[in-house]
């Protein structure tokens, strides 16, 4: 399905460890706050700044990432494997809470900043795939991972109401890392 090889230094130097399951607290495997580069084979992984998948996040898709980025270098405390089938993704976004108002079905990366839905979305339902939802159209700001079959009736629960400007699927073939600030 997928694995990640973590390295303590940039450019795949120093100690390394291979993981193939979620880790809620990297202290449990003696790797908290010391990851500086990674290799991903198969499905994407989400790295979180804090334990229990909280704080800033960084998505690593398949490939070699010789640096994790200065904002997250040596600050990763939990890792989660994206296990969803990433083919034929689909998410429905809604203008208001409780899936009310105008809706739109999305099946590909979409910059809402250039259309009618910028900063207007308040809830969603994920039919297929795993999606990265971002506050700003360049993929920065607050970001959220929306996973298959998730139904989030109110973005107020994550302090994200009327802030969505960009969303894209996570994809094992996507060629770069998205840094969440």
Description:
- Helix content is 0%, strand content 45%.
- With 181 residues, it is mostly beta strands.
- It has two domains: 2-81, Sandwich (Gamma-B Crystallin, domain 1); 90-179, Gamma-B Crystallin, domain 1 (Sandwich).
- A four-stranded antiparallel beta sheet has the order 2-1-3-6, with no helix packed on it. A four-stranded antiparallel beta sheet has the order 7-4-5-16, with no helix packed on it. Strands 9-8-11-14 form a four-stranded antiparallel beta sheet, with no helix packed on it.
- It is elongated.
- The relative contact order is 0.18.
Quick summary:
The chain is an all-beta fold and 181 residues long.
Mean pLDDT value: 91
Q: Low-confidence runs (pLDDT<50, min 5 residues)?
A: 173-181
Please give the largest β-sheet: 4 strands, antiparallel
Please name the fourth-level CATH homologous superfamily of the largest domain.
Crystallins
Number of strands: 16
List the total number of helices: 0
CATH-derived architecture of the largest domain: Sandwich
Strand portion: 35-45%
**Portion in helices:** under 10%
CATH fold naming of the largest domain:
Gamma-B Crystallin, domain 1
Report the structural category. mainly beta
Please specify the SSE layout and strand pairing.
Layout lengths: L1 E8 L3 E7 L17 E6 L2 E6 L3 E7 L2 E3 L12 E4 L8 E7 L3 E7 L3 E2 L11 E6 L1 E5 L8 E5 L3 E2 L13 E4 L8 E2 L2
Antiparallel strand pairs: 1-2, 1-3, 3-6, 4-5, 4-7, 5-16, 8-9, 8-11, 10-15, 11-14, 12-13, 12-15
InterPro entries: Beta/Gamma-Crystallin, Beta/gamma_crystallin, G_crystallin-like
Pfam families: Crystall (PF00030)
Family: Belongs to the beta/gamma-crystallin family.
